[in-house]
Write a structure and sequence with these properties.
The chain is mostly helical. It is 79% helix and 0% strand. The mean pLDDT is 95.
Length: 126
C-alpha cells in the first residue's frame, strides 16, 4: 500500500497535470514514483507531463516503466503512441494502437483517442 506522502504527491501531481503546470506535475509525480515505485499510473502521468513539457526522452522512459509494471496499461499505450506520432514515428504509434485493439476489442477511450490521433497525423502528413 502506498504511503500517505506518495498518495499526496500523486494527487497533487495529477492536479498539476489537469492545470497544465508541467514543472509542478513533474516534481510531485517524481516524488510519488520514488515513494511508490510500483505505481504504473504515476509513471504514466509523469511521462505525460514530461512529453507536454517537450522532453520526449524522459516521457518515453516513464511510459516504458509504466508498461513494465503493467503491460496492459491502456493509458500508457495511448500516450506512448501519441508521443511516437509527435516524433514522426507512425509505425511505432501503430504498434501501440494494435496493442490497444488487443486490449479493447470492443473499444475504449484510449483506443479511440489514439485512432483519432493517427487519423489526424495521416491527414496532416500525407
Amino acid at each position: 500500500m502506498p504511503s500517505v506522502a506518495a498518495t499526496l504527491d500523486y494527487t497533487a501531481g495529477k492536479a498539476a497535470v489537469e492545470a497544465k503546470d508541467w514543472p509542478m506535475a513533474i516534481r510531485r509525480l517524481t516524488a510519488a514514483v520514488r515513494a511508490d515505485p510500483g505505481n504504473a499510473d504515476a509513471e504514466n502521468l509523469l511521462g505525460f507531463a514530461y512529453r507536454k513539457s517537450g522532453d520526449y526522452e524522459a516521457a518515453q522512459k516513464h511510459y516504458w516503466r509504466a508498461l513494465k509494471l503493467d503491460p496492459d496499461h491502456r493509458g500508457a499505450r495511448e500516450y506512448l503512441g501519441e508521443s511516437f506520432l509527435e516524433m514522426k514515428m507512425l509505425p511505432k504509434a501503430e504498434e501501440q494502437l494494435s496493442q490497444l485493439v488487443r486490449l479493447c476489442p470492443a473499444g475504449c477511450d484510449e483506443r479511440s483517442d489514439l485512432e483519432a490521433a493517427i487519423q489526424r497525423y495521416r491527414q496532416e502528413n500525407p
